[in-house]
Amino acid sequence: MAKQLEGPILPFLRLDDAVALPKFRQVQDQLRMAILRGHLRAGTRLPASRILAEELGLSRQTLVRVLENLKVEGYLEARQGAGTFVSAALPHQPSKTGWSEKLNNALDMPLPRLSRIGQLSRQVSADIGQFEHKPFLPNRPAIDRFPFALWRKCWNAVTRGGKVAAMGYGDLSGELVLRQRIAEYLALHRHDPCDPEQIVITPGGHAAFTLAAMALADPGDGILFEDPGPVTTSNLFRTLGLRLCLAGVDADGMDVAGATSRYPDARLAFVMPSRHHPLGVTLSLPRRLALLEWARANDAWIIEDDYDSEFRYDGAPLPSIRSIDGHDRVIYAGSFSKALYPGIRIGYLVLPPQLIGVFRNLSGLINRSVPVETQLVLADFIGGGHFASHLRRMRGLYAERREAFMEAGRTTLAGLARIDCSESGLNALAWLEKASEDHAVRRSVLDVGLQCYPLSDYTIATPRPGALILGYAGVPADRMKPYLLRLAEAIARA
Predict the structure, then answer these.
(1) Which domains does the chain have, with CATH numbers?
(2) Which of 17, 45, 76, 260 gives a 20 to 30 Å CA spacing to 359?
(3) For the whole prediction, is pTM greater than 0.90?
């Protein structure tokens, strides 16, 4: 008797060749939405990966990857010898009545007419990762060491008595006092003086990139982008219709010569010269100069993301590309997300003089203004010397935690992973010694109550060995070894 197919039929899974989103992401997103909307309820058994692969015309390895990712996210669970099921831990989905019914029915409805950006936004993810603050969560500063009392004093001083200046719409470029404080900080601590009029305040670094891309490039234009590189940023540029021109990354940073020769018509370059994320390397001076010359010769622009520049543990922070730009081709982007805390949502651009008016107007049309209260509080915080003091304390703290991480990591992870900890930033890489798939290892890491990101999530086209991105800045030095022993256990078990 022929073996019957087990598990539900999944007619809602539809693959669209016209969509740029990879097939595995299309399947993964549709399964996730089907679970959230109650099409697949808690405890439902899924077809075997082999059967799903045959039905969709994909490789079994692709479907295994989809199912593993959804297990990591908590939507699915494996039962020994029984198969893969929708997680029983999910809350009971309401019956299909009222608004829930509309949401469920929307899954099967034809898409409304969307703009080009709306269509492109469906093909990428805006997810910035797990929000659980478990040990080794990447990109997380030591929020518990933030001087909340000082910040509250600054806030009270700015808002006391309902001051009119803090309650209305703000300057389209950002509050002048904050721009003055940022200019002073850049001159003193980054050796990169500018006029406050060159600065435009944005709601975070990501908004700064958006503004630059919209002002300087049309859909279809090319942008040099490092591979691997930050996922949400590459997705942002793709959503805006830009063509990613991938540049390799080695010990000297972006391969400028290779990228510019392959893509001579690129309009923009996005680069993280102070500390590449996630590899942690810095862009060498010859390559900085080569990138500047390319921009000058081709009437192109460089978006410089000064990522983690504040936290360098061996010597002073490296000069920015903007500081050696003699032809006004660099748009410098900075933010306070790592230096203070991510939720502050204040970033800024330092612009060449000829772009100030365009960016100011465009920022006003898109953002109107960043919350004035927060701008004034930050200006007071910087002006009172608290920002510089906080950075100094955090550099010392992170240096101590980095040293503890490296010292304990070399012994606890011996034979399992090689620690790669750059001289700056908040993260380290653990290169897996065995030919392990880093998504599978991450699942094991989550199971033991820790956090990490797989390097493969940041890779666009260039294959690299498996590695885990680990954040050490949020972990106390005296807890580093116990957590690393738990990490070693998870890697060994994966």
Answers:
(1) 23-110 (1.10.10.10), 145-388 (3.40.640.10), 395-493 (3.90.1150.10)
(2) 260
(3) no
